[in-house]
Structures are given as structure tokens and as C-alpha cells.
């Protein structure tokens, strides 16, 4: 099992942040999105928010790669629709490359390595 941590910002708008959280409640999420996440080899995913900053923890199967997930997403029209909707709420971190959304975080401390 591998673990990844990523960050992204939401637009600084309370109404948009509230709507973003609405779409991420279990009862409002699209089942096709959950299925695409699981089929890519992601065993668990959690998203946390403070202010407009998002923090994601992904636990994946050993075979998971971001490259394969990107290919799968590119060929899935429902995932593309979801990403288009989410981009309404999201904004790239200031140091993100063009078109980059979620940015990998570097671990700088671990209590029990």
C-alpha cells in the first residue's frame, strides 16, 4: 500500500466552498466517480479543508500510478464532466504548473518512521 498527500486551493468564496462541500458529501457524489477512483487502485481517499486550502490523503494499491489514473480519466466522459464541475470551485496553487490541479506534498516530519 502506498500513501500520497496532495493539496489544492478553492476559490475564496463562501458560497462556492459550501457548494464544493455539498458535492463531496456521500449522498451527493456521483457513483461513477467513486467507481473510477476505486478502479484506478485507490483503496481510500480523504479530503480535508481549512479555509480555502484542501488536503487530500490517498492510500493506493501497489500497482497504482498517476499516469494510469490520468489515462483512465481522460477516456471517461463522466469523470471529465465531474472535473469540469469541480474546476468551478478550484484554483491552482500559486506554484502549480499550467493545467495542474492537485499538487503532491512532501513529507517533512514523521513521529514514528
Automatic annotation (TrEMBL):
Q: Which organism is it from?
A: Niastella koreensis (strain DSM 17620 / KACC 11465 / NBRC 106392 / GR20-10)
Superkingdom of the organism of origin: Bacteria
What InterPro entries does the record tag this protein with?
A: Carb_Metab_Mutarotase (IPR052996), Dimeric_a/b-barrel (IPR011008), Rham/fucose_mutarotase (IPR008000)
One annotated GO molecular function is:
racemase and epimerase activity, acting on carbohydrates and derivatives
One Pfam annotation reads rhaM
- What is the name of this protein? L-rhamnose mutarotase
Amino acid at each position: 500500500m502506498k500513501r500520497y498527500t496532495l493539496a489544492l486551493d478553492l476559490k475564496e468564496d463562501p458560497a462556492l466552498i459550501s457548494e464544493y462541500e455539498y458535492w463531496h458529501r456521500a449522498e451527493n457524489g456521483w457513483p461513477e466517480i467513486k467507481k473510477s477512483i476505486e478502479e484506478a487502485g485507490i483503496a481510500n481517499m480523504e479530503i480535508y479543508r481549512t479555509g480555502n486550502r484542501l488536503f487530500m490523503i490517498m492510500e493506493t494499491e501497489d500497482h497504482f500510478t498517476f499516469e494510469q489514473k490520468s489515462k483512465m480519466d481522460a477516456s471517461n466522459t463522466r469523470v471529465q464532466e465531474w472535473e469540469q464541475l469541480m474546476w468551478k470551485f478550484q484554483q491552482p496553487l500559486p506554484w502549480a504548473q499550467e493545467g495542474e490541479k492537485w499538487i503532491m506534498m512532501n513529507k517533512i516530519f514523521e513521529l514514528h518512521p
